[in-house]
UniProtKB/TrEMBL annotation:
The keyword tRNA-binding does not apply. It comes from the Bacteria. This is EAL domain-containing protein. Keywords: Membrane, Transmembrane, Transmembrane helix. The chain holds residues 485 to 760 of 760 of the full protein. It comes from Jutongia huaianensis. Residues 24-276 form the EAL domain.
């Protein structure tokens, strides 16, 4: 009956919440040791031209958990943001990225860049500017080879001086990227109110729920790409999975791609073997 179904779905719902809460608590409890034992690692996903030339990469964290195996950011970033642990994880990943850039630059690959993700919450728990510039000075890398990815939501809801800090980042020589552009509710306000270097277009435009909306999506992509040209920004399209997508977007004027069509995020050693 309806009531039984209802009761069952509530029970299922409670169960799921409970399981999630337990899992979250365990992950939070595991954090200190994980950081100490370097269970978090940096994967790299290449950013490519349509011709397949590798320009740089995005650093994406993975958790090599001793009991649970490889865990993806979707399962822990939010929990760490809620609990204020995220800044320690991000600082760790940024350091891995800067170390890698230093090594590449010593080996003569000074043209390659790495993009790192900055969480909104990082701005609450530390001075992001000081943390990142300290790393750059410690490892003596070329600042323009480190790109900083910030989501538009972080920028528009920011109260911790994020906008000023973005200006400071750019003055120091970092490139600033808006991540997941178009997924928030204030994308165009973001562009009006701040200066950035790169727009990373949200994958959502390539994944319409109804096939008949794909055409609309493509028009929006076209508009975003030409707008970025007008504003002097470079564009990265994220989430390209097929050759057709790359061909279409290249016709629209996009030059840089990140997506499974070229490669999934892979361990650093594999990245170096494959691309360098
Ligand atoms: P993001 O920064 O937008 O990163 C892109 C995500 O899209 C990555 O997921 C990547 O694996 C995935 N992706 C790239 N190309 C394709 C494609 O062609 N198809 C599909 N289906 N997916 C594709 P990932 O690594 O699971 O990361 C998810 C999100 O977690 C990231 O989204 C970012 O917001 C966050 N994240 C990852 N690493 C870090 C980190 O070190 N610090 C912080 N604060 N957040 C991170
Ligand atoms: Mg990103
Ligand atoms: Mg993104
Ligand atoms: Mg994202």
């Amino acid at each position: 009956t309806l009531n039984e179904n209802y009761a069952r779905s509530i029970a299922y719902y409670n169960d799921t919440i409970l399981n999630n809460t337990i899992l979250e608590k365990q992950l939070v409890g595991d954090f200190d040791q994980a950081l100490k034992e370097k269970q978090f690692c940096m994967y790299l996903q290449p950013q490519m031209t349509s011709e397949g030339k590798m320009l740089g990469a995005e650093a994406l964290v993975r958790w090599q958990h001793p009991k649970r195996g490889l865990i993806f950011p979707g399962d822990f970033i939010e929990v760490f943001e809620k609990t204020g642990l995220i800044y320690r994880l991000d600082r760790f990943i940024w350091e891995l990225a800067v170390q890698k850039l230093a090594r590449w630059q010593q080996e003569g690959h000074s043209d390659l860049y790495i993009s790192v993700n900055i969480s909104t919450k990082d701005f609450y728990y530390m001075n992001v500017y000081e943390t990142i510039t300290a790393l750059v000075e410690k490892y003596r890398i070329i600042p323009s080879t480190l790109k900083l990815e910030i989501t538009e939501t972080a920028i528009m809801t920011g109260t911790a001086g994020e906008l000023d800090m973005i200006e400071q980042f750019r003055e120091y020589g970092f490139q600033v990227e808006i991540d997941d552009f178009g997924s928030g509710y204030s994308s165009f306000n973001t562009l009006k109110d701040m200066d950035v270097d790169v727009l990373k277009i949200d994958m959502g435009f390539l994944r319409t729920s109804k096939p008949e909306n794909l055409e609309k999506s493509m028009s929006i992509l076209n508009m975003i790409i030409s707008l970025s040209k007008t504003l002097g920004l470079s564009v990265v399209t994220e989430g390209v999975e097929t050759k057709e997508q790359v061909v279409k977007l290249t016709q629209m004027g996009c030059r840089i791609y990140q997506g499974y069509y070229f490669s999934k995020p892979i361990p650093v050693e594999e990245f170096e073997k494959r691309y360098m």
